[in-house]
Amino acid sequence: MRTLARSAHVLTEHIDANSNETFLATATEWESLRKLVALLNYRPAPSPSASTALVLLATDNVSGLLEKGFGVKTKPDDGSPPVIFETLEELDLDATLNELKAKNWNRSTAVLAQNADITTFALAGPLKGTSVGDLGVLSCADGMVAVSLVDISIDALQLRLHNPAPGWPAAPPLADAVLWLTARSRRVPKITGQNVISLSPSSIPVADNSILIWANGSTWQAARVAISQGSRLLLDRNGPAAGTQVFLGLAAQRQLYSINGADEHRIILPLASDRHSGALFNAGLNPINESAVTSISGLYDYLEEPALAYYSTADQALGPVSYASQQSVELSGKAESLSTGDLLVIEDQDGALSAARLESLEAGADSVLLELVPSLGGAALIHGHFKHQLHPAGFDRNTDPIQDGDNSITLQMLPETLKPGRKVIVSDGEQAQQALVTQVDRAQGKIRLHPPVQGFAAWNTVIYGNAIAAGHGESAKEKVLGSGDASRSNQSFELKVDDLSHVPDPAFVQGVRADLEVWVGGRRWQQVDSLDSAGPEEHQYAVIQLEGGNVTLCFGDGSHGRRLPTGNNNVRARYRRGAGLAGNLAPGALVKALSPHPWIDDFLQPMAASGGNDREDSTTLRDNAPASTLTLGRAVSLVDFQHLAISQAGVWQARAFRPAPDGRPGEIVRVVILPAGGGQLGTLKEDVQTFLQQRAEPQVQVDIAPWQPLIFSVDVSLAVDSRAFQPELVVDAVRNALLETFSLSQRKLGEPLFRSQLMAAVESVEGVSNCSLVIASLLLDGAGNAATAARVVRAADSSIRRISARPEQLLHLDAALSQIAINSHEWSL
């Protein structure tokens, strides 16, 4: 009786189990579910392959057609096998399209901040070796001004402007500003100015306070030498013109003589024939009329009145004047650190500062002659050979948007090979966007992209013209599947590959097709989603996913699809291997080429790889299969958009809603997508948008929006009976339960979070008698920055009871960013 009872029990349970497998809601075996949903004409989504877009940097002067299949891979640090991607299409590779920049990308459009005579000069980093009071020159295009440092900080200098030269702009452009600061050379020049003359170098040296006499036409003039510096003399009044012969003035003083028994004061002079007649001057260098001279025939001339007189003779010739009103600056010694084009600070006798440029220099044996622009006289000190040459911070950063007001982009250089229809990637190093060139205006050097790029500044944005789609997977060797038999209907062959690559294709219900080529004899057959609509002569086949990951290739019966022709091993397959979540890579993860290519110097992966997912599981089969019968491949309601989006193999979740009107005609439906594995949408955005737009009403415009992480933190206190459970193990179990229950894959877009849900998850863990729990006020986005929810509901004690999310937000715990504090205490009644 016992044996009978036991056998009956086993048999009845077996009957119940088999019965359960015949109902969609109760079936547990994946293969049973596959057969059940096939009755609804639904096929389980395969494991899709991630895809991304690569940038190929061509070797200089290369131009040609690059075949598909260029392979790249990751370089794991943990020793795991690399993830391999291959290009999925041909590309007209051209080196001139490697990197395109916006016009004036490296020229800031800002200006230097000026307040009266003080300007702020921003620094790119700390400046050493300078101090308040240092002198310099600030130049901007053709303008320049002497400056002195009045204040210095880590990120800016405060400069006082001195005597701006002509051409100095009121608002100096930041892009043209250059600062020379902290002079290392200070040299005293020879005198210059209106009353400075230069005699020929061979002239007799002239001492200070000497008197110079020269003829100005028919009259004679005189001047005193205030300063003598070799052949350069500063006079106390206007001097002679260039080329004038100059004579040294001799002094004749009044003396007491005894004449005819009486004492008389006379100034004895040479005879008029021995001196320059009319070249007589008193102590004040005023002319003395020649008629006042008394001549003693054959002996001498004399004057009775002046106490002192100056005259000159032919023997006192000093030579001609080489320069009059000397403005050129002359330095004693060698040129040393000076060179043509240098900027200098010129300090005059009164301490006033001016800026000048060294136009040219003429080196002599023991001096160097400088020509300054503008020409400055009265230089007492020259400051030059500056220690620092600085550009203001951001001078080479054009922070304006890359696109003009009409969404066009003016390029620095527009290659002839850039034509409409070209795929490009726009990247600034932080974000990247794929677009299509729709218009090229060569006359103005402009292009237009679709979709228009937003949020890109000109200075750090690059347009990569050699962009190409790449997918997870590696080409495998051709495989013989078997032999065709025209007498048989619906022949099928199993391809034993558990990681067959699948690539995006909006023509397929799941949004992907097997990356597979089937050749029968010498003809390639076409892969379709289903043979139900295939004609009797169509060379088509369908791919069915199997439980173990392999696939079956199904051919027609002569009514729905052509039968295979008879042949010996005439059915062959070429395919690629690589699929699943492992292909969802962050930007820059692909770093190495599988093998070098002579046309390619390097490559970049500026966009995340997305769309990779595991094979559809039992839970989603139960949900998606009935939903497919509601949509019938068309999207009418918001729920239809959600169902169709989720049916895509690379999508985990979708949420559809109608946004506020933005001026566009027709109805707008926005669908928020959570890609498999989370992360960025990447190329999945365009694939899903194309898929949904083809199935929407004509007047409906579909927008795809990325999901937004909303990460929360919790503080939990557990009561644990330590006599029955180890508190440390219970704490670990609670942590794992929270991370699992509120993980990215378990939570829903727009789903609110209740404190009671958290407590239920904690108290469901064995060993937890009860708990108290606090939800932290700080919410984070995926980058760890503070984020805001739609609404936060608090209790009377200000503790959070509920957090409501916006449709695009997903509230969840993140192992890296969430702060999960768990402590335990002894349980007691």
Write a concise synopsis of the structure shown.
This protein has seven domains: 2-38, no CATH class; 99-106 and 398-465, Sandwich (Immunoglobulin-like), CATH 2.60.40; 113-191 and 327-390, no CATH class; 202-323, no CATH class; 476-577, Immunoglobulin-like; 618-706, ANL, C-terminal domain (GMP Synthetase, Chain A, domain 3, 2-Layer Sandwich), CATH 3.30.300.30; 710-826, no CATH class. The chain is built from seven helices and 60 strands. α3 crosses α4 (638-646) and α6 packs across α7 (755-763).
Domain unit count: 7
Q: Look at the helices and sheets and give the structural class.
A: mainly beta
Largest beta-sheet characterization? 11 strands, antiparallel
The coarse overall form would be elongated
Poorly predicted runs are none
- Helix amount: 10-25%
Q: What is the tally of beta strands? A: 60
Spatial order of the strands forming the largest sheet: 6-7-10-9-8-11-29-26-27-28-25
End-to-end Cα distance, whole Å, is 49 Å
What is the gyration radius calculated from CA atoms? Answer: 47 Å
Number of helices: 7
Tell me the strand percentage band.
Answer: 35-45%
Round the mean pLDDT to the nearest integer and report it. 90
